[in-house]
User: Fold this.
Amino acid sequence: MSKEELLKIISKGAELLNLEFTNEVSDQIVQYSNGLPSICHQLCLNCCFSLGITETLKEKIIIDVKILEKAILSYIDNESDTIKSSFEKAFKQKKTQKFNNCELILNALSNYNFEDGATVGDIFQTIKRKEPRYPRGNLTNYLTQLQTKEYGSIISFNKDTGHYIFSNPFY
Assistant:
């Protein structure tokens, strides 16, 4: 979903419950949702749960960053098995190799903004600072594999920008 559509989810729910999400909180929820309405809904719901809100309020309450932080921690806690499983798949090496390719790639990618990601060249240069003899062929091969379910679908490729990003901003 677009940013505007996700913001409508937030504002509609806030209106129905007599809440007010600060602009900063709304923007962060949209950012963490990564276009997925289910994450948007869950983060908003977790904000309500952290305040004990289960029905429409008589007086408006403002949802601030501290409340969102609790909601995010709750989300991560609930999703921890899924997240852990994805990383276990990514880090499982089929055979002994000179380089721990997936770990090097994911570590390098984590140095970049999760919304923007990084190009192959960016990732390669970051890896080369740690492993000067790292072959570029390994990088292109494992970037492709890290997009598959077998490797946890941890990253995705944005064809429009030519950048690789984490498929889930909570990674």
